[in-house]
């Protein structure tokens, strides 16, 4: 409590100075060259049939397709099993002595090889809590704000490619979260440390690639810390504050500051409790906020059901329309895949950090659960947002697709320039007046839950870099809480581009490691399938 109060006390003079001296613009100016430098490498384009395609997107798509075929469409074959695991059907497989296969892949009563020294400590959270903790990071403002802008930029056809990206991304999530459990560390007190940092360093060392694994793990951890402060924190706080102050009719910048203080207090108290506290909060908040948002979208769609067939027609026509040439077709595909990847984080590796804390003796059990995330996040929730945008635009002619200003804000037919969550808010309000109040609640819940999970991701990466200990924890958590208030109070500008670049930078080391370690995942899947058959 004293720590939180001390952090907040430093905010008042800083925010006052920032608002009077225009420090927000100075921060943008500081981060712009850094963001541009990182982006030039992370989003380095390769020309394909006259269209520049970011190399990171090719890595994501290539990896997802490889895992989809290598594991024979796990996104279809294992879907029902995933539902059963989350529902508790196979809990006794995890809670009792694990089945030991004839090859003795696992020993010592079925514990994972890396954790056999700590008997009885199989993890910290349930399958459902691990799923909701990870979902709380992926289901966020990317679903509300990012999708709306993607539709405005790429047209309705981008929706189709978002769905495809979500479908094949299920395979990537399965692989990375299986490895997250397999190579996790468990302390003597049962605290779990896991994620790409550990399966890159430990897994590649097993394959005789110790130096490569260590280098990739360090690079990933640095990017994860940066991503947690930026995209996982400041962007969320900024967009939530923007929606709240607009709905409440506040003009003063101090309203955003005090909003940030309240959110920081909430997040601060929760993250002090660690993954167990985060799991208990997210298992209640995530389903609630998802239901609120999906119901809100369904209400709008049901009120305009006659326009849904035409909307799907626009989606399919836009996805395969070659009127603008091959370049236009690839452009729409890029927008769809890029927004889906940013939203569900499949291939980024972040979700493996939360899933590694699950209570299980079978790594593949949690990988199977994890493949539900891109389906829920992208195939369901992102599609809901896209349909709302398309239907309302059909009915009211809110904007012309592709009509964006220099800052990528959408130029509305009223002359307003809107971006992010404000664009979605207008679409909702156009059908039901003042419905943005419900959206505001959903936005705040999305933002808080995303910050909760990203705080855990960033902390695990921070510990990997700087060591485990109370002082290490306090420093990171204090910085994280500080940036919530800063993010709510100032303009982000280039900081967003900076954090985006860091999050997508996590893709390169992660996908390289996933491909090399894919055979280990196959072994774990075989083990688990044998265990549930013996049930």
Question: What's the helix and strand layout?
Answer:
Layout: H1 2-9, H2 11-21, H3 23-42, E1 45-48, E2 51-54, H4 55-70, H5 74-77, H6 79-86, H7 91-95, H8 127-138, H9 141-154, H10 157-182, E3 185-186, E4 192-193, H11 196-206, H12 210-248, H13 253-272, H14 274-303, H15 308-320, H16 325-344, H17 351-355, H18 363-370, H19 372-396, E5 399-404, E6 410-412, E7 417-418, H20 421-431, H21 436-466, H22 470-489, H23 494-505, H24 507-516, H25 518-534
Antiparallel strand pairs: 1-2, 3-4, 5-6, 6-7
In words, what does this structure look like?
With 535 residues, the chain is mainly alpha-helical. It has a single domain (2-534), classed as Amino acid/polyamine transporter I, CATH 1.20.1740. The protein contains 25 helices and 7 strands. It has helices at 2-9, 11-21, 23-42, 55-70, 74-77, 79-86, 91-95, 127-138, 141-154, 157-182, 196-206, 210-248, 253-272, 274-303, 308-320, 325-344, 351-355, 363-370, 372-396, 421-431, 436-466, 470-489, 494-505, 507-516, 518-534; strands at residues 45-48, 51-54, 185-186, 192-193, 399-404, 410-412, 417-418. The strands form 3 sheets. Strands 5-6-7 form a 3-stranded antiparallel sheet, covered by helices on one side. A hairpin with a 5-residue loop joins strand 5 and strand 6.
